[in-house]
């Protein structure tokens, strides 16, 4: 009796390149390097107070948020890992105001990497799952010194996207545009092992994720949708719904990828200058790409997230993603309200 061979991320990528020609050597290297950086971040997260990584760094990022030590450390780990390999033309991150050019002493490649180095910062100090989110774009033809404009491409242009969730186990989720695959970190061996191929999100769900404390600031279609869910069995939906909110997008999206659900961070009227909280290029787009590749849907409430043409690197968007039928319903409510 022969046992099924364990497929490492390295083998998965080599086979994607060699057998199916789906990726080239540079993209393979890029994914390997990001995965290696995620392993380092996972180790730092796992050390917790013993590693001296908890607490605030005492600095602010471009969005005016106080940076945690782990936000800064994770950003440095991803930068250092990706600078020298020759696979990137530039990098951009939640934690850096402007894109980071590849230093002249290193060769440059054809890809742009955008990331949220540590997602769920408010959960670091309380030992709840956090993660890393990344998106890969091509550097536009003829651009030698990519600036912010080079990054301003709609999500449909992503060639790969993924996230790592540092939870009770560390899991890397990846799409190269042909389905979604999950890899669990074997901590003893130090390698990511394929544990889920062509993962799909059920079309229907009875579970929703939203920060309910903002309800009083929501727009009417948003209230209508959630009020209908809260009404349960005797309401218009005719069944009960359950709620979960981790406050780490990676963890909430990972639950949805595993058993379905809808995740919402809507626009609200608390601060009309901010169209939602989450950032398009390194939170909404990579997650929307993954969710669509798993058979789910992702919209801004009005349009497909992946079709949004970014105007700024750190732009925010409302996010509705997950089980298709729920995302379509809440999107229809928003469209109706627009008339
Ligand atoms: P980050 O830690 O990268 O700034 O992202 C936090 C995001 C996201 O992970 C999560 O879904 C959301 O913020 C939580 O927001 P609330 O604190 O408003 O619940
Ligand atoms: Mn984030
Ligand atoms: Mn972050």
Write the layout of secondary structure elements.
Layout: H1 9-18, H2 25-47, E1 56-60, E2 66-68, H3 69-83, E3 88-93, E4 100-101, E5 111-119, E6 130-138, H4 148-151, E7 160-166, E8 170-175, E9 180-186, E10 191-196, E11 207-209, H5 220-231, E12 242-243, H6 249-259, E13 262-265, H7 280-293, E14 297-299, E15 319-322, H8 324-338
Parallel strand pairs: 3-5, 11-12, 11-13
Antiparallel strand pairs: 1-2, 3-4, 5-6, 6-7, 7-8, 8-9, 9-10, 13-15, 14-15
Helix pairs in contact: 1-2, 2-3, 5-8
Bound molecules: 2,5-anhydro-1,6-di-O-phosphono-D-glucitol and manganese (II) ion (MN) (2 copies).
- Taking the alpha carbons of the first and last residues, their distance comes to 63 Å
| Helix/strand class | alpha+beta
Strand order of the largest sheet: 4-3-5-6-7-8-9-10
Largest sheet: 8 strands, mixed
Question: For the record, what is the CATH homologous superfamily label of the largest domain?
Answer: Fructose-1,6-Bisphosphatase, subunit A, domain 1
How much helix is in the residues? Answer: 25-40%
Mean pLDDT over all positions: 96
What hetero molecules are in the model?
2,5-anhydro-1,6-di-O-phosphono-D-glucitol, manganese (II) ion
- Under CATH at level 1, the class of the largest domain stands as Alpha Beta
């Amino acid at each position: 009796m022969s046992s099924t061979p364990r497929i490492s991320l390295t083998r998965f990528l080599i086979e994607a390149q060699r057998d199916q020609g789906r990726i080239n050597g540079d993209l393979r290297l890029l994914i390997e390097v990001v995965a290696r950086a995620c392993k380092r971040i996972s180790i730092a997260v796992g050390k917790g107070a013993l590693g001296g990584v908890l607490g605030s760094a005492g600095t602010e990022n471009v969005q005016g948020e106080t940076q945690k030590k782990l936000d800064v450390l994770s950003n440095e780990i991803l930068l250092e890992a990706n600078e020298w390999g020759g696979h990137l033309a530039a990098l951009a991150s939640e934690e850096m105001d402007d894109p980071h050019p590849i230093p002249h002493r290193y060769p440059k490649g054809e890809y742009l990497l955008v990331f949220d180095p540590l997602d769920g910062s408010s959960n670091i100090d309380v030992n709840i799952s956090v993660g890393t989110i990344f998106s890969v774009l091509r550097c536009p033809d003829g651009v030698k010194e990519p600036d912010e404009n080079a990054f301003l491409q709609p999500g449909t242009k992503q060639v790969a996207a993924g996230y790592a969730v540092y939870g009770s186990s560390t899991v890397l989720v990846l799409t190269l545009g042909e389905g979604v695959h999950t890899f669990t970190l074997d901590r003893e061996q130090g390698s990511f092992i394929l544990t889920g191929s062509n993962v799909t999100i059920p079309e229907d769900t009875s579970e929703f994720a939203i920060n309910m404390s903002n309800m009083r600031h929501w727009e009417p279609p948003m209230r209508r949708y959630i009020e209908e869910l809260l009404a349960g069995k005797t309401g218009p939906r005719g069944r009960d719904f359950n709620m979960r909110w981790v406050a780490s997008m990676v963890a909430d999206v990972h639950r949805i990828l595993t058993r379905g659900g809808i995740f919402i961070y809507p626009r609200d009227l608390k601060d009309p200058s901010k169209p939602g909280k989450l950032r398009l290029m390194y939170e909404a787009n990579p997650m929307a790409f993954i969710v669509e590749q798993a058979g789910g849907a992702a919209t801004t409430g009005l349009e497909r997230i992946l079709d949004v043409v970014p105007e700024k690197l750190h732009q925010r968007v409302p996010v509705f993603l997950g089980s298709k039928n729920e995302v379509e319903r809440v999107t229809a409510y928003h469209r109706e309200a627009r008339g």
